[in-house]
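Batch manifest line 453
LIGAND: pyridoxal-5'-phosphate
JOB: complex structure
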Amino acid sequence: MGAIKLRTAVPGPRSQELMRRRAQAVPRGIYLGTPIYVAEAEGAVIEDVDGNRYLDLAGGIGCLNVGHRAPGVTQAIHSQVDRYMHTCFQVLPYEGYVRLAERMNQLAPGKFAKKTMFVNSGAEAVENAVKAARAYTRRPAVIAFEDAFHGRTMMTLALTSKTHPYKAGFEPFPGDVYRVPFAYCYRCSYSLKYPECGMYCAHHLEDTFKRVVAAESVAAVIAEPVLGEGGFVTPPPEFFRIVVEICRKHGILFIADEVQSGFGRTGTMFACERYGIEPDLLVTAKSLGGGLPLGAVTGRAEIMDAAGEGGLGGTFGGNPVCVEAGLAVLDEFEHDGLCARADKLGKRFAERARRWQQEWPQIGEVRGLGGMQAMELVRSPESREPAAAETKQIVRYCYEHGLIVLSAGSYGNVIRLLMPLVMSDEQFEEALDVLEAGLKAVLQARGAAVQTA
Ligand SMILES: Cc1ncc(COP(=O)(O)O)c(C=O)c1O
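JOB STATUS: finished
ARTIFACT:
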């Protein structure tokens, strides 16, 4: 018997009633992915307030690599809630914060002395990485990439690339942020082809220092090893090695934003390991907290120590309940082979998606690293015109048929997978069956319409 069970049409009557109340009470700027109101969740299964059961390929946007309510995590949370919930680490410190910092320092790539601070979100972690980089280098500028997403606070919006809906109308943003093309080979900003391009985009950083911003003014280059919201764009293996080498040559720090790619998603604890690079500062959040709000900046000790006492921190950062959850998440990774699982699920998706690609040429590209997999949909392989409306229809078809899946990409035409890594093979096949049916319903109908036109 499958995991998906629908008792009502989706959304059911209770969800619909909550949608009506939401419209009155919540601003429309808060994005609505699905009209489904949750009652319970466990592992990779979600039950809604109407008793419908769904499989989850979204994981609360990549926060549940260890699954909903992973037993070790819920136990750790319960036990901490029964002792104390908040003292503020800067007022009355506690061991959990220190222990989690020690473990993050060990886990982050690079055999050098490291230190870690904790915050409440990915954006806050990025903000603090920039602060640390500026305090250490005493330089102002930061270079970010096209199609990057780093958050919704003002500095992280400055670093984020996509204009609508993230940036438009919220200007001005903090200055001294410069943007360069990413290795998005399917839509190369220089219209070149890999590998004949010789990794032009990476080497072009040197040119940026002559024509856009002086190298000696740049504190850091920040990048997602695999773009998250930008559509799981996965650069060729040598891209980051070249970028990091250029950074080192000019005394520029390299910040890896692994908020979405971290904690096993790509088949290693951090995607940087897949590229063989060691960031000066590693930014994490999402799956670190196993469902609770927790972000971290882990970096070279001398960089993390550059800010003066009181220069870093915040009231709730590294809350005792959240850090206990974080420690339990790391335990799950020690025992449960979740990285290998990410690889296995990712391979299985790629196999099936490549077969779908034979059938529906509107699947322009299947790409990813480990379990961080996606497909980019286009109107035709020749024009590569983004198929954003179709992508929306597929996402909708899926949730109406019991599968929660997310879109992504600067053009909104990418379907990405962020399933809990504890999802069983049977559940994953069932999920992919629904996705396949969604592709068929939307792309086949669209293909037929184009043919008869
Ligand atoms: C790579 C990356 N950085 C930063 C953020 C911002 O994280 P948060 O929403 O927790 O502020 C996100 C969120 O999607 C992300 O994917």
